Amino acid sequence: MCVCAIDCALCNSGDEAIIHLCEVCRSNHPRNLPVFLKVCAALSVLASGLFQRVAGDSIHISQASVSRCLTQFIDAMLHHIGHFIKFPETVGEERAIKAGFYRVAGFPNVLGAIDCTHVSIRAPSIEENVYRDRQRRHSINVQVVCDHNTRILSVCARFLGSSHDAYILRNSSLYRKMDMLANNDVCFIGDRGYPLLTWLMTLFANPITASEVRYNHAHAVTRSVIERTFGILKSRFRCLDDSGGCMLVTPGIACRVTTVCCMLHNMAVNRRLPMPVIPQNPKEDDLAVAKGLPMGRAARIRQQIVDQHFRQVWYDTVRLVA
Q1: Cα–Cα distance between 20 and 35 in angstroms, integer?
Q2: Where is the signal peptide (predicted)?
């Protein structure tokens, strides 16, 4: 068991999870402290959100040592990001995700739910104003795609708090990848902060028909997993949650820490570790709504989904079977 006194599911899950992290980090760590102790020190800071001095006290090492442990742990983990955060690699894995989403409310071909969440940081010394979000906090805005089990498939944690969700998407590698694929067999679902695209389904702003209302309901219920993912992530790693204050690091370090927390979250999901208690915080709303009329082909694809999956007789039958 981890000697760490902090309540962290990864620390308290037994030797296996900690040993795995030690193996991941071993080749990248200097030998001044045992890797096991460094991993526990880093997890203490990430899971508790406590200052490094307090985390150091819990495992009897100095604040300076905790700081070095955290830096070395983050660096080592990021060398393995592709092992922890990735899209499905086989047809079978893709089908399993689409089936999982479909079971929620009958929404077809969903590969992931997408949204952004803010992580509060200390006011930067340079250009601090561009990091202010809509709530006037200094933050980074983090784009995440998750599957039906809250597993994170993609994370982009390099944008300023003032950046809108749609802007982040259009300037991310995810957008370039999906735009090149042009695959009508998969889609993401996002809220009104995103534009309607051939591979990104959004809500009808003003649903007119009963089928459009049913589509909107199924969309909202299915998309709610991303909000649950954010809740679990921030409850599991309190350094990301602003209830106890902001992260006292530079924006660059905050981006790296956030990415590693997403990696560790996936490790916890894969190992079926206990879910943390999620506080009922108000949803973070990006009040910016993507402007412009839906593009012709994207609008036709959305209408095809409505016609094929949310007509009254068919939809009622699917709900009864489910």
Answers
A1: 11
A2: none
Place of tokens 């910016």: 288
Sketch the domain layout of the chain as residue ranges: 15-79, 83-321
DSSP secondary structure letter of residue 122:
P
pLDDT at 255: 97
Report the C-alpha gap between 67 and 61 in whole angstroms. 10
- What is residue 242's DSSP assignment? G
Note whether 164 and 193 are within 8 A (CB): yes
3-39 burial string, b = 16+ CB within 10 Å, else e? ebebebbbbbbeeebbeebbebbeeebeeeeebbbbb
Give the span between the Cα atoms of 114 and 97, in whole angstroms. 14
Q: Which of 196, 198, 192, 110 is nearest to 149 (CA)?
A: 110
Q: Do residues 251 and 139 make contact, with C-beta atoms less than 8 angstroms apart?
A: no
Low-confidence ranges of the chain (pLDDT < 50): 1-7, 13-14, 56, 320-321
pLDDT (0 to 100) of residue 256: 97
CB atoms within 10 A of CB 262: 24
Query: What predicted TM-score, i.e. pTM, was given to this entire model?
Result: 0.87
pLDDT score recorded for residue 40: 82
Give the pLDDT score at 4: 44
Note the pLDDT of residue 10.
57
